[in-house]
Amino acid sequence: MQEIPKGANVSLTALSEDAGAVVVSLSWTSASGAGDADVSVLLLDENGKVRDENDFYFYNNPAAADGSVQLLGKTPTDNGDEDRISVDLTAVPEGVARIVVAASRYAGARFGDLDDLRMTVADRSGEPLVGYSIDDAGVETAFIFGELYRRGEEWKFRAVGQGYETGLAGLATDFGIPVLEESEEAEQEGQEGDGEQEEAVPAPAAEGLDPADAAASTLATGPVAEPVVAPAPAGGTTPAAVPAQTRGRSPRTTRKKVTLPKVAKKSLAENESWSQARLFPVPSLKSDREREVRATSVLLSVMAQVPEFGRRLTAGFGAPAGRMQTFTEVSLPHGDTPRRPDGVIRVERAGKLWTALVETKTNGNPLKAEQVQAYMDIAARRGYEAVITLSNDVALEGRPMVEVKVDGRRKHKVSLWHLSWAEVAHQAQMLIRHEGVGNAAHAWLLQELLTYLRHEQSGCHGFQNMGAAWVPVRKGIEDETLGHGDARTVEVVESWERLIRQVCLRLGGELGQKALPVQRARRGSDPQARRVTAADRLCADGKLSAELRVDGSSSVITVSADLRTSKVRTSVEVSAPEGAYPLVTVKRLLKLLAEAPADLHVESLVEGPGTAVGSGPRGTLERLRPEPGDLLPADGSAVAGFRLSLLKGMGSTRGNTESGFIRSVDDAVERFYHGVVAHLGPVEGRAGRRG
Q1: Quick one: which of 538, 543, 580, 577 has its CA closest to 558?
Q2: Which residues, listed in sequence order, are joined to residue 75 by a DSSP beta bridge?
Q3: pLDDT of residue 197
């Protein structure tokens, strides 16, 4: 990969023969784990202006109808997460001369508070072509990272690194997007409220809706006026300025999306024992082979029939937006014995084909390296672009699912990608419950797919086994016989990391927001070395720990499994508002937690010397409700915040049964989020752990 400095440019076609479509990645790290920014893309004409509002892509308008631009969202990395954008340069309209890639922060946050700001461009196969790092960020609240631009018949990349102290509103103004200042916005909203103007749908925040419910409500009733500057922070504050054409009387012209209602229609069955007829039945499945064949056919057929879903699963693998066809049980020559991959995906765009082989495993069966290697060889010989593996396992950063050898003498490159069944279910749920699809038939097909994947006989349940090392490591910790350097502890740490990534997928799919693991290691650190360090901590204190964060919230949820006490602890820290009376703050917190479980542990965090924060009084919610003053330190020390924790019994077995460890962690996070974190909207989460 070529590194270039600020202001430099490079030809993409000179770097790769496969640069007709690229994946642009923006990444950063934060010491607290809570730093975030929102990515946006602007298509500009020869005059450096957008042609119309549809040339602006952001979190509420993530994809172009022609497939030229698609925001793929955040992807967990070893050191945090990165935002990826798929750009099909062959589909970009002729009137577009430049594609600007930017990011913005909200609620007064600055880019100088983030570390390792970086932009990379990879070709269709995923091979990184060019990278650019920003090391001079300061008070800016919006940044243009770089741009793709035409020069004759080729596309080039320029490292820009231009910051704006005026946020996304200032950046948008520069490129011809009209912006309403705060006073003008208030005046217009007042006029709209008089009933004399065209009716406008109130913003979800004004109705006091939960963000996930608001998103589902908006999508179910069709598109409404959406702000296109930075999103409101967790507290619901409206941005200072928004582009004019997205407000009240000028709603977006995007196509209406369809989502399924949250409440199922009343059944006409005579009794509850009747089973509803399903498009994809599963009770007849008898063997793992039958499960693999059925699951592959079901998934690939829905991908071909629901363009939004097929595009969602393949865009990150370099596939263009185009007509998709899928096939199962194909026969391909391979020496004396033909090979039969489980499936083939073919996408046609502008007369060009993108093709991938698919290898599927269900019911926890592992992928076989020799089988995947054979498909990689076949793909290289036949000019296919990718091999996609699909199983219950979850991929880890820096840890390939299977080891394969790539013949460097071959000119044609083949990319190896992996999907988890949990990720497939997550993407289906995001579309039918939160983001919407083109019509009701597509929504129904996705619901049938989701029902199939969740059936106990499908074998497509995601990560469901902690591995052979789980029981001996757990017993070694209980007996205090486990020694440092035991290779089995690293296996357990890897399984724990896979479990946390899957928990994030399930929680995010339910909420309609991305939930991501928080990594506090600096970018570029060795992921395996980090896992060895975590394994040493496991030997020392018998605990597995992780942190996760829901997109749009600064609250960091800590999950800790204590193998010595067999308890799972979920916790979050919240800050005390500055300048408020301590007792008023405590009462306000307890009021917010009125519906929280009575066994919730509440601990005050007391300011100490310097920046240190120590533990103060604590108690269960049940005991503190009648006596809120018990949370205040007797010596009058200032209260910096509170730590809220729930404890749950830990499952012991390695599987996903009711008594299994995986189920207990999943249930603990779900109970904690819905029982505690969801009630903390008005209270800011702390950026990270202290004390």
Answers
A1: 543
A2: 82
A3: 36
